[in-house]
């Protein structure tokens, strides 16, 4: 496995060096850049008790306490670069030293991700020994993870610390694959206290650990043997969860600030969809609503004056008002999400298929919450794509779904980078990753992985890209209806993501069926 | 994985690196009144678009030659005209006569960068891929690695996409010449080279090897029979191509003289700024520029240049093989760079191109040379604000080339062809020359890193404001001189074994 580390290092070098160049040139600042600078300032210059009360900037601290401590520790390095960035009042402060520090901090914390990828590669099943290095599943996995287009642009061009966070997630998954469940549970608890969006996949963790770790034996038909329950294991798990939670939230509970912290973490005041609709069910729902209202106006069934204004003028406002279909409340999205992941969770309870079954369930949870969640960001698709890479190099069917999901999901990230100078970069990087994933997986499984319809759909993405970013800006509608490209992108992509979600479910249920069949 | 996908991945990677560099600053950004090479190229678009052909190279009321007057051959002018037509379509302000002087905007920068990328994609990159696949040896994987390493050469990327020039066109056409000659189509090869010469007169550095290679080939076929026919074919091709390129200027001898005068500005002196060549380095010890008159300097430099290129040219004439040809290209252009008149620091790209072609055969010396050549342009990069891209692309190039071409495993005495040194220096103590070379390489890379760091972070002493640029150029000069000797010895001593093997096979 020496070659693994070598190749891993190689891939990393490419990524890191390339991205470094990208940033040196243009210092474009996304909102997330300012968000994290503000958090550095808050954690550095204010006492802990003020962290979740501070609101000078509109980008208030809305990650769990461990992440705040992470920013706190970063700020101690930051002060050697430029002290001014640590002043809360310095809004949108972007000195070169600040940029350098922020960018470097992402690159350096990526080490966690690199280590996690190495551990994941170790846990991949190898089929035959003597193939050339480029054809090995572990190599393909390393490249798919390290070169992941989405992670690259979200972290290193847009600006976030996902590499660090996904590193912990993948490490935890790798530990489960290796049978080191307590470590895996500890890592996941830490992760939850760094960023609470991972709550979406907590059901998979909870049920898996309860079923496959706390119950030590199965009946012969695979169902749970209640007598094998191990209270010691449950206590061990519980103490891990509680101690990490106490470490993180304890001080705030002691200060009586828990409600304040929670209100920051779960802001339900935002709308159903983000400014740019993430490609999920609600994008389709909005689209249907819009189409119906336009149709209604045309057929004189509806009165234009009575329609909510936003629905006719834009669509890029935070609050999208439905004109025909019923409005969706947060609780409905919650119920939909729970319903969508229920079968997967039940499946690993009834017929646990080891850590790989758990991984599949985790991906479904991530994707289900992406499809039905409240105010989902397009970036959340990475939560499904990255863990799914591990399954993709092990089974032919998963590889096909993976190609569909990643290509559409990655394309849906394009609106994150919207300037003309960034266009070639995002297209080239996307082509690089997509070309690699297609040819390597095709070679690995010897044959085509997609049917003609799927291929046509993916080729359609090229047409959408040309239409939205080349043709449309030149047309006269650019000024009257500027939101159309985003709308088309998110609706087109949501078709592909929904399709992948359904296929993923079918594969899960089919496995369930064959398991039952075997027992009969 | 199939070759085509690996190659596409390499090309995409090269393109990404190029575009990433191009997001950086360019020469003379925001520095009126003269700006830099970027403005020169834009100005040529303005001039060629708005003025009739016969005014392009003349000083008129509309064409002030002192402000970035056109001083490249006609193909460059036609290329500017083509770009200007596209620019006019997008935004007429960019090429408006007089009014557009010093125009700088976000959109214009994107347009200019895109023209470089398009030219690169159409000319240089295909030539690199063809060369690696048809003319270099080894497994397919090795060929792919060669493609990647050549495409990642930092010097060319930084000058074309950072500083701003179109070297990928002239160098790409010359490379097409090499590729096509290597495949055995002599006429097409000479056509490609003449085009490259008509794009940038600096390609003269490469002209002697092309000439000797073709002439040698004619000799080999017998000057009485087929050889003569070939010679006539090539001569006609060259003349016709030249005539076609210069067609608009042929009507009037005054035009031709003026263009030639613009192309070779003898009055500008032996060297400008700090160049890593003999004259600039010698100037530290003896002030040649003041001691000798301009004419003497000219003859002096001409003689030394001719002396320096003679051995390799004669050898090539006697033995016109591809291997000799590649080495002769290196030796000739490097000799020109070191000894000829009016050399710019950017001219190091001319020897760098044939050295790229040696990456597969002599990895360590080639990498060493390419890195030194990038380093020699450091003062220029610092002036243009390209420090970070310089550091990043250099590190990436060193890492990839050393790792992918396994440079350190190919540095035994045999592989580096260091045998002749033993014969030349009999009294030399017994030691492993390969290892010595490796250590010298480490030392030199460390020194380059150190000097780069010092240039950036330390202020020079008051009485020596040019200390660091001078150190950089003298240090690079020592590398170039050493490698010139080395490549000459490799060329003259013996053909590589692999070539001999191939010849046996073909027999």
Can you describe this structure?
The complex is a heterodimer of chains A (520) and B (507). Chain A is an all-alpha fold and 520 residues long. Chain A is built from 21 helices and no strands. In chain A, helix 7 (162-177) packs antiparallel against helix 8 (181-194) and helix 12 (281-298) packs across helix 21 (484-519). The model of chain A is unreliable at 310-318 (pLDDT under 50). By secondary structure, chain B is mostly helical. Chain B contains 23 helices and no strands. In chain B, helix 1 (3-22) packs antiparallel against helix 4. The radius of gyration of chain B is 23 Å and the shape is globular. The relative contact order of chain B is 0.10. The model of chain B is unreliable at 499-507 (pLDDT under 50).
Describe the global form of chain B: globular
Low-confidence stretches of chain B: 499-507
Q: What is the string of helix and strand elements of chain A?
A: HHHHHHHHHHHHHHHHHHHHH
Radius of gyration of chain B: 23 Å
Pathway (chain B): Protein modification; protein glycosylation
GO cellular component, one term (chain B): endoplasmic reticulum membrane
Membrane topology (chain B): Multi-pass membrane protein
GO molecular function (chain B): dolichyl pyrophosphate Man9GlcNAc2 alpha-1,3-glucosyltransferase activity
